[in-house]
Design brief:
By secondary structure, the chain is mainly alpha-helical. It has twelve helices and four strands; from the N terminus they run H-E-E-H-H-E-E-H-H-H-H-H-H-H-H-H.
Length: about 325
């Protein structure tokens, strides 16, 4: 179960609690439940404060609402444990997903990993439509490339100085109500100083690792990667939730921040992918390569959502 799935599962649990009389009949069922990573000191991996939101309308204590929702979630596949903390926070421990399983899912969906399915339930279709509207509102077309002409009409100098991709990155990197920062740093081919370059460079590195591995006579195969790939795995797990939240809040800057975090994790992990010295390629190397390739795929898909190209070489 992904965090995005968890959000929809909690919505269904609230609906069931109302239908079965565990919550007052007049209790409104939210269209979406915000699920976030548990903060330091919390319990489990993810948490939501939805019980407080519902309690106001239901005229009951948040803790009672939380208990009703938790009861509906007992035994749901993918959820290992639900705990209530504080005055009514719901905390979740998800059933562990292996790195191999996660990589296979990314491979299956490719650059569309984390996208809402057009054939899914209503909420999934709404999220997909919202993402497309976000892209359009930023001068982009659906999931395609950046529409340069509208940008050029509005600010010829920015596009001429920095290029369409870098200009788009600067515009999307901050919330719409904040002023976009256009700096010569956007043109630096420096992963430390330029986040725009860093994300595209991380994608290019994932492609280079595949080429290097082929030269060494091996290819990717999903499998266990151990704790050393933990940051990359967490980035992949969070990707669907980030896309859903970005659509809900009309906030493409959330996608930007997530891509930077995933790129950082991949660039740290890259040095553990290929054999060193006289070391022979092993199942562990194939699994690490598969994880790196999956991260590169997600980076390319996220950049495409922003209307930005992801070149294989930089």
């Amino acid at each position: 179960m992904t965090p995005a799935d968890l959000s929809r599962t909690v919505v269904r649990a609230v609906r069931r609690a109302v239908e079965e009389g565990e919550l007052p009949a007049g209790t409104g069922v939210p269209e979406r439940v915000v699920v976030d990573r548990t903060r330091p000191g919390g319990v489990g991996e993810y948490a939501t404060a939805v019980a407080f939101q519902i309690a106001k309308r239901a005229g009951t204590a948040p803790a009672e609402v939380a208990r009703a929702i938790a009861g509906m979630l007992a035994g749901v596949p993918g959820i290992e444990r639900v705990e209530i903390t504080g005055a009514g926070f719901l905390n979740f421990v998800l059933a562990e997903r292996s790195a191999a399983e996660l990589v296979r899912e990314v491979r299956e969906h490719g650059a569309r990993y984390g996208f809402a399915s057009p054939d899914g339930e209503l909420r999934a279709r709404v999220v997909g439509d919202a993402v497309r509207r976000i892209l359009w509102s930023q001068g982009q077309e659906g999931g395609g490339g950046l529409s340069v002409a509208p940008l050029a009409r509005r600010d010829r100098g920015v596009v001429a100085l920095y290029g369409a991709d870098a200009a788009a990155w600067a515009m999307l990197a901050v919330a719409p109500h904040e002023t976009a920062v256009f700096s010569p740093r956007l043109l630096l081919q420096d992963e430390a100083a330029n986040e725009f370059f860093r994300v595209r460079y991380a994608h290019a590195r994932s492609r280079a690792l595949t080429v290097n591995a082929a030269q060494l006579g091996f290819s990717a195969e999903p499998g266990p990667v151990g704790g050393e790939g933990g940051a990359v795995v967490r980035g992949l797990l969070d990707h669907p939730l980030v896309l859903e939240a970005a659509a809900h809040h009309r906030a493409p800057e959330r996608v930007v921040r997530h891509l930077v975090e995933l790129a950082d994790a991949l660039l740290d992990f890259q040095y553990r992918v290929l054999p060193k010295g006289d070391e022979k390629p092993s199942a562990a190397h194939r699994a690490r390569l598969a994880l790196a390739e999956a991260a590169g795929t997600v980076l390319a898909g996220g950049l495409a959502l922003l209307g930005i190209d992801a070149p294989d070489c930089l």
